[in-house]
């Protein structure tokens, strides 16, 4: 179909962004053959691309404009003014096509909090139903269970016939079986499923792969099998520049979407939705497109010469991400971590394993294997009155009671740790993510990251020009709040303790024999970490998990909301936002599953409203 045909045709729904949430919606809304949907996606379709499909090749996707929007943050004051790479997927499937494939979950109590913030229906019971609808949990094989244990995953909490595949990693490193007993030796139980409220412990990390080790993402899971539906049109390489909004005075009450403008092959086109336009551009581009269309802070828009249609200063605010600090340690010979695959013969063997459908080490990300653990660390350090007093000094709004509750509880996680037989170089990975995974020294490494699950700090993303081609200004404001900084310092000290505990300690190269020097040189730290060094490492080595949320928050308007619980944009008729940006408060874990569930729930909300 030509773009002229598309322009002249009528669509019930126009979805801006064929990413993680956008494709869920496209798939579910077109289940009704009478519903016509157009998806406008700036990237291209790469369903057969091995760099996307073979999980361990994901490191080649960053800083390449074929796959990545290649955004950068502003200098981050609490991270020694470092500028941090902000990759976002620019292909059909969006960021689910370029993410790290890890699927550690959020818990029931966190979703409950969304409802308490003024969002009826956004609770655990409802989200669990949509998690299950979106996913298939592939139970561990005997080989996987022997390596990691079964992790007490409770099958009743997971889907069995949804499009997105969840599979345990397939490990090869000699140290793989050591994670679970090491955590147990530290008194960390794993007797509950990680989705259960208050679950602390250690579990083998589920991955977004099918049972043959192929990446499972929005395009392969939700789009590939329905691409031929006559009522679905997906236009790739279509760069949306703004929504055309009729102002309230013209539209009679609320502003109204009159069309969507996009550029294809350097020519501008306009399409119209008869029912609704749905913005699914992700946490950076959805607020950007709202602002370019005149929905945002009037003072910012006026400064940039953009006509104000709806004055809402909350657009682009409330940005949250999961900051994390990596720690690596040199492993004994023969551990066979990710660095082994730099040897051509090892890589060839691993490629053969993958091509033959046996999975193998390339099928679980460069990490090969991984394990995660959630901890309540603040409970212990909360004994210091100074520290407790600092909590809430600059966060006295609707969210802080919940966050404070988490910090004072010993049954909710404030930190999450991921472990893998791989080296990282956070000093380079901050500037360019592709360099995070290329530790300069050959060798074998064991790596861990401490991830802050519920940051207090809030940042923002805003347009700096009325020109749609200019990237937004992204200021995540990482570790602005002292609690965030303190928790990560404690996380570094805890990771060191894990590496010193048996049986994992048996795989760590003796640090007294001089070979640990390599780490000392590249990380500019002595091999023994005290509090001062941990603080330095947090400032110099913290990177995000690339989980930005919250910039079009689902909250009551007077509490900083951009969308209501039906995900409709305040002040505009016929416009919703459906993507990660609507999350009011960040949850623990890796958030792609939450985005799939948001897409599923939004599809049902829309179907019900229009009786589809
Ligand atoms: C490097 C990285 C690692 C991650 N690791 C993990 C992980 O291991 N596990 C996990 O669960 N999550 C992970 N995530 C996060 C997760 O993948 C995202 O939160 C989720 O995919 C976001 O979904 P979304 O629908 O909000 O946005 P996206 O999936 O990013 O979709 C937005 C879509 O809109 C398109 N778009 C934007 N602007 C325009 C425009 N103007 N015109 C047309 N199209 C436009 C984009 O090209 C994109 O396709 C990671 C993310 C990144 C970037």
TrEMBL record:
Which cofactors are reported in the record for this sequence? FAD
Q: Which Pfam families match?
A: GMC_oxred_C, GMC_oxred_N
Q: Name one GO molecular function term.
A: oxidoreductase activity, acting on CH-OH group of donors
**Ranges of residues in domain Glucose-methanol-choline oxidoreductase N-terminal:** 89-112, 282-296
Q: Which domain of life is it from?
A: Eukaryota
Matching entries from InterPro entries are given as: FAD/NAD-bd_sf (IPR036188), GMC_OxRdtase (IPR012132), GMC_OxRdtase_N (IPR000172), GMC_OxRtase_C (IPR007867)
Q: Which UniProt keywords apply?
A: FAD, Flavoprotein
What family does the Swiss-Prot or TrEMBL record give for this protein? Belongs to the GMC oxidoreductase family.
| Protein name (database record) | GMC oxidoreductase
**Taxonomic path:** Eukaryota, Fungi, Dikarya, Ascomycota, Pezizomycotina
